[in-house]
Amino acid sequence: MVDHIDGTPCIKKKSVPKKSAIAQYWSMINHDVILYVDWGEPVCWACGMQASKYDFHELGLSKQDRFKVWDVECYLERSHIVPSALGGCNCEANLVLLCRTCHEDNPDTRNEELFFRWFNSRRSYPLRRLEEIKVEFQNFNLEFSIVNFILFRSCIEFYNYMEENSIAVGGKFSMATKVASFIDWRSQFTEGELFEKLSPEEKLLALDKT
């Protein structure tokens, strides 16, 4: 492989990376494929099956270390997008995390686009979560903009604020708590200051969507 589907070059990794490394990689890639995953709550990225006993709060992990929760989940398997037998690499960009059923069912070909066509057809939980976020944003009269969504999904500064100023009931923050905390946090900044909190890649995505 020369380039991955996300446009990054293949660096020909010899060994398959940890699940935490795969999750962390995709959390930083603004690709339409991985639409919504709560990176602190392991699920199958295709069908959305959630068999995890823990999220990162229950394991006592900080927001910065939240990806380690993926390493303790044996029901999730590392699945090559392009199989290694067909020349697929071990780069994070060629790997996704799937339950055993989805791993067995996925198409094993060289065609990445067809893999993600299959992948998208199985999505349920990620889409439901996205709709849940949209509804909660509407409940609080908060615009569902690309900048707000990116910051809500992945800004460590926001999550640190939420942990200090709200309560996780049963080890988890409710969606209403997350959105209310996000509104409180973002009210401290101007729109320009919020935009500057995005990574360079996120800024490009935000500008492309406006």
From TrEMBL:
Residues 76-105 form the HNH domain. Keywords: Endonuclease, Hydrolase, Nuclease. InterPro entries: HNH, HNH_nuc. Pfam families: HNH (PF01844). The keyword Hydrolase applies. The keyword Hydrolase applies. GO terms for molecular function: endonuclease activity; nucleic acid binding; zinc ion binding. This is HNH endonuclease. It comes from Roseivirga pacifica.
